[in-house]
Amino acid sequence: MKTYEGKLRLRIKIYWIVIGVLLVSMVLVGEFDGRQGSILNSRNMPDLTHDFARLVVFGGIIVFGLLIRRTKRLLSDRMKRAEAQRQEEDERRQFIQRRADSMALNLFLVLSVCAAFVLSYVNSAAFLTAYAMTLTALLLKGTVFLYCRSKF
What we know:
Elements (H helix, E strand, L loop, with lengths): L3 H29 L14 H30 L1 H11 L2 H10 L2 H20 L1 H28 L1
C-alpha cells in the first residue's frame, strides 16, 4: 500500500495532466475553429454552449490549480496532512461515500462533461441532450449523497 504522501504526489501529477489536456484542447479548438471542413465552429454556437465550453476549460484549470495548491500545502504541513489522512480513512465517511458515490456514476459524469464539451462545437441539439444528462446525473448524485448522509 502506498503511503499517504505518495498518494498526494500522484494526485498532483494527475491534476497537472488534466490541466495539460484542458490547455491542449483550448489550443486545438483555437487552431481549428472555423476552418474549411472542420467540425469545430464556435461562430455558430448559442450562448449556452459557448459559456459551457469556456466554463469547462477555464473553470477546470482554476479548480485543478486550486487542488494542486491545496495538495501541496498538505504535503508541506505534517499536522494538516495527518488530519486529512484521518478524515479520508474515517470508516463512516467511507461508508457514506461508497453508498452515495459509485465509480460508474463518476465515470458517467466525466464522460458526459467531455461529450457536452465536444458537442458544444458540433451540434446544439446534441449538446443540450448531453448537458441535460450531465445536470441530471449531478442532481442525482447530490440527492443520493444528502440522503445517505442524513440516513446513516
